[in-house]
Amino acid sequence: MKAAPLARALRRHAVEVLVHTGQHYDPELADLFFDELDIPAPDHALEVGPGTPNEQLALIIQRLDPLLASERPDLVLVYGDTTTTLGGALAAAKRDVPIAHVEAGLRSFVRSMPEEQNRVVTDHLSKLLFVPTDVAVANLAREGIADGVHLVGDVMYDAALLFAPLAARREGPAAYGLETGGYVLVTVHRAAATDTREALEALVEVLSAIGEPAVFPVHPRTRHKLEQAGLWDRLAAIPGLHLAPPVGYLDFTALLVSARAVVTDSGGVQKEAYFHAIPCVTLRDETEWVETVQGGFNALTGMHPQRVAAALAGAAAPAERPAYYGDGDASGKIVSAILGRGDG
Questions:
Q1: I want to staple 48 with a disulfide (CB 3.0 to 4.6 A). Which of 19, 22, 255, 292 is the partner?
Q2: Domains defined along the chain, listed by start
């Protein structure tokens, strides 16, 4: 989603060599997004596949290193806070290739969180840091990072504007026999919510507490964990909960814009909800997207059923939405900064 608008802008002015690590190895997730968002086919596929974060990180570095030697890029561009982000940054740093980090400066201030580890290290290795918000600029300043910081807005907002007309043509809630405003949309995938039996049992309790129709496109990893724990049938028995296979960005957006509210542990979905003025309940105790909480668009509940139910009961998005994430042209500003035309 982040690459889709930026690749369009970048390829008008530079040669982009796209590397797909295969960290997200399920074709239901990876291939679908490339196809429907018209992202250019990867020039290189590392086929890292499943494994622990350390195993994936080692393979990404090992397989990316010879590509850096042969391609000799002027810049390595990495996105977000995944294992791929950190692997790309480490491999480039060891080759002394400048790094540009899209979505830099975000902090949850929970260092045990894998995503926090990835983005902190990547930020400190990067030459160009493309930040989405004023808060992210301040986070970097506190860590002594000022050079190369560019406040550009959020490329995901670019994507939301770019693809909203296509999403509007999708079936949305009608595919589940539901009406606009008559259901809650659920997403859960983070390790903290799925890696232990206790966390999975808490998830089942949370979803039971929603108490109204809900659609849950289940991440393959989440489903596998639930099945391993013997909890899938309990989840499937929750009244009103529609368990669905993973959906692409356009179908997901169609479900999101018609939902009464969204319940999620995803950082990206918190923003998507804000972009479309849908109230959000976040199953975490912290968020990188603090603006959404401070502005009343997002409630942090953790994995506590009563808090989730209470947040949903009072869920309503404020009428005014400040431009927290820019003007929808983060991609253009990033390209200008890369080409040395200013900081946007």
A1: 22
A2: 3-154+326-338 (3.40.50.2000), 163-313 (3.40.50.2000)
